[in-house]
Amino acid sequence: MADVYPVNETFLSWQGEGVHLGRKAFFIRLQGCPVKCAWCDSASTWHPGFVPKQVRKSSAEALAAEAASSRPEFVVLTGGEPCVHDLGPLLAALASVGLKAHLETCGAYPIARGFAWVTVSPKWAKPPLADSLARADEVKLIVEAPDSIDRWTEAVGGKWLSPNVWLHPEWSQRAVPAVLRAITEQVKSFGAPFRAGWQVHKPYAADSLDPRARPPAPLGGDPANGF
Question: Is 218 helix (H, G, I), strand (E, B) or coil?
Fold first, then answer.
């Protein structure tokens, strides 16, 4: 059982993506990720060039108390990749103060029981487990190229089990016409479960308004440099 968790940041904001868009949420971003995507939005959770000088360590009970003090509608456990940690104690602590927990994961690691909502965002470096895809309340596909949707659909056997498959342009590609057209055509051609998505919190700069939030690490987008 985990006594403490390595914490990259905690902050109060609102959910900027998916079915729960716009709802008040407290975010707990845990440190550490073995996936290490080149376009990572949270490179400070794993990249040696951006790791905080001192990584905060916090108990499950302290994190739950901090979250409860903000009176959110729910708590989002994210990373990095949160499922590399034993989340059982943290889920129990959140439940003890009456808070529902949502998960954001790549799906490559087993998902603990007790989450009220699970978002799986699959990554090529470590593809998701079949159990994770079956558990997902929603899937967030990162559309980094016009063929990303077809490639992922083929990779999961041609059928998505989740009723919500969000198509998000990778942020550095958000103004690329071919990427946006691919998303639009997918939704127009097939409808459900596909839904056009966006990271709405970013133009609002909603997360950074909480002083506890860390400044975003610059996106290098260059795998040769490791980020």
Answer: coil
Q: Are 102 and 137 in contact (CB under 8 A)?
A: no
pLDDT per position as a tens digit, 34-81: 999 888 889 999 988 888 888 999 999 999 999 999 999 999 999 999
How far are the Cα atoms of 22, 29, 38, 79 from residue 49, in angstroms, in the given order? 32, 18, 14, 17
Contact by Cβ (8 Å): 40, 47: yes
Q: What are 207-217's pLDDT values in tens digits?
A: 999 999 988 77
> What range does the domain containing 64 cover?
5-139+198-221
What's the domain count of the chain?
Answer: 1
> In this structure, what CATH number is given to the domain that contains residue 118?
3.20.20.70
Question: What are the backbone dihedrals phi and psi of residue 22, each rounded to the nearest 5 degrees, phi first?
Answer: 85, 0
